[in-house]
Amino acid sequence: MNALQPIRTWNHEALRRQARLERSTPFSRGKAVAARDMVSLLEALLEPGDRVCLEGNNQKQADFLAESLAACSPQRVHDLHLVQSVLALPAHIELFEKGIARRLDFSFAGPQAHRLARLVQSRSIEIGAIHTYLELFGRYFIDLTPQVCLIAAQAADAEGNLYLGPNTEDTPVIVEATAFKSGIVIAQVNEQLERLPRVDIPASWVDFFVVAPTPNHIEPLFTRDPRHITEIQVLMAMMAIKGIYAEYGVERLNHGIGFDTAAIELLLPTYGESLGLKGKIARYWALNPHPTLIPAIEAGFVERVHSFGSEVGMEAYVAARPDIFFPGADGSLRSNRAFCQTAGLYACDLFIGSTLQIDLEGNSSTATLGRITGFGGAPNMGSDARGRRHASAAWLKAGQEKNGGQTPARGQKLVVQTVETWREPGHPAFVERLDAWQLKQDMGMALPPIMIYGDDVSHIVTEEGMANLLLCRSPEEREQAIRGVAGYTPVGMARDHALVENLRDRGIIRRPADMGIDVRDATRDLLAARSIKDLVRASGGLYQPPKQFRNW
Amino acid sequence: MRGLAQSYREALARLRVQALLDPDSFSEWVDPAQRVTSPHLAALEAPVSFDDGVIVGQGLLYAHPVILIAQEGQFNGGAVGEVHGAKIRGALLRAVRDKPSAVLLCIDSGGVRLHEANAGLIAISEIMRALFAVQEAGIPVIALIGGTCGAFGGMGIVARLCDVIIISEEGRIGLSGPEVIETVKGVEEFDSRDRALVWRITGGKIRRTLGEATLLVDDDIAAFSAAAGEEVGARPRFFKKRRLTPAISLQTLQAAQQQLSARAELDAEIRDGQVLWSRMGLGDQVSLMSPEQFNRRLEALES
Fold first, then answer.
1. Which residue has the higher pLDDT, B5 or A69?
2. Interchain proximity B5–A270, CB inside 8 Å
3. A272: which chain B residues are within 8 Å (Cβ-Cβ)?
4. Which helix (H) or strand (E) holds A274?
């Protein structure tokens, strides 16, 4: 052995962590940081090029920490690589405009989609990839591990233990990846308490916490006012319940968020009950606590719900229904996006959601020109889990249909897209070519931002009827099946009428009448709640809707 | 297979008529097939409706003959134009001749149709005069208010002339609509987009509380029908009620004047229904009470 060979150090990351902590000492008292010192702390601790997760969820935002980071001097803090699921706040965009951050790996940018697209076009940002949630969480443990994470919690105690409140969302997976790879965990909390209701993150995983000047912002993203549900949506919900839920015996499922799926939730206790489906369908859910699910819960349809996050106003209702939801010992909800996404992918037999565009292969996308929206929960849950090994009646039946009636070696998830043929005047939902392809070209992306791939889609439901793509035997049949439910859109008008009638004879396309549904029955009187107030009443006064949803 | 009750608020006028009366008992006068439409709208090249936004005719309510007038809130906000007004007036005068058990007036209107303002204003005064004639003949006029447009403007006044007002929580009565008040007096005076405030000031519950409506019912056509049935004596009364408008005499007018003066003094600083409900000891959850709970609490307070 050559004695002169340099000795390799094996704790480089731990030493680097130590150095960061030492640089931060002047700005903290133990783990507690004063709000006014946060910018100085971040400037001392961060190094150029750091991978940072700035917790941005669907709902919960580490808004104070985002503003603090954006207030850092770009001379001291620059070229950060942000790895976070959602880009929701104006401060997130500012980081790139100021040069504090340069590279981004993310999942969803709903409210900032437009500004993000402009940043890409002006080359002020490098986008690694637009991920699904589970992909991004997976990469936290492989090649995108954060060196610093800035998270949001409800409360901390003096030692730095954290209580996350009902809106857990991404926090556990972020902290796990950061804390166990010598990273630094910084939490903003709404309050410091003597004693926490429960400990969700132990103090030994947390380096710093700050009581934010204002509580972190939470949007009620999952509340749909039943007032806005149309009779067309009622009709489509009837088709989904009778033609899919009942026929396949779907017991375990996830719903996308929208008025189409809210209509289904509100039809379960009325239409579903009249079909004798209670206890047979829609029993187990991967779903946030949607207020529109209250009547189905009260009617005894729903037996269990696991959630990604919570919903503003649903706290007392959820706490009063511990058999249905997943509460902690303190009674308040525990949610978890990583686990609920996994459940939606592997443990559910059906995903149903809406989209903005569907092409002739059944690919669907919510991307439109000039906006980079990314994806919500749909791509993971709206895809067939080919690694799945446990059977269920719904999964096997769908697999058999796809396999020409033969018993296959694996089943198939039901992935349903429910759309009105025209989403608004001048904008058909069915298109020859998705805007996503143009966006790929304009933005120089490696892939078009397709939300759900056509080969994962099993059914398309429109006001004109339902297409079962599992039964299609060729790309031509598939195309005609899609045209055959596309109504009076240009795509629908270009159908081959003879072929479409043939598909209808074979049950691949079914009109409402073919399913024994009288379109005249599709009225709003079928909804178990027609207003937010009806939901409050159905909850026995436990649901407390946010102000913007009240008319009292 | 019905979920909730059949919503009165969301139904079109034709559906309301059908569901309010005994099955197949309604026969319409000046029906849409006759296409008596507004000449004013046509002159302005605005869309017309073959019934000019109002349905009039006769039918049976729990086997009692009634004349029914139903405005269509989805056509020009149920606004009263020349033809529309003439149809209402004609139906009222027909009641004087035919002596039905009652006239049902389903009001769903923002008031006078601005396209034909003068004709509409005259029509409103003609409707009022005809309504007095019906009352003079001893026939009760029952207003049903639960549509999206409420009863505003001239039709708000007409509503208050009726013997009985059956209203849902979603129903509203007023003179100037919230948007008009906001436009004229500013958002500080009345924020028309604060839906909660609008209903606490013009909605069915506060109108019933103030004694300006007779009975609060569910947003359910069957509930409106049953309550109207009680008024014509076809069904036993569930709640005891008094007529809103007693037969007119000097004494009753003086009594009404006295009552209004007292209210103007007492409630001068009350600018929100919630304040009144709290003072009355009804608590802060009035908005969440069902109509039945609400009526019982109020009757108990009033007796």
1. A69
2. no
3. none
4. helix A273-274
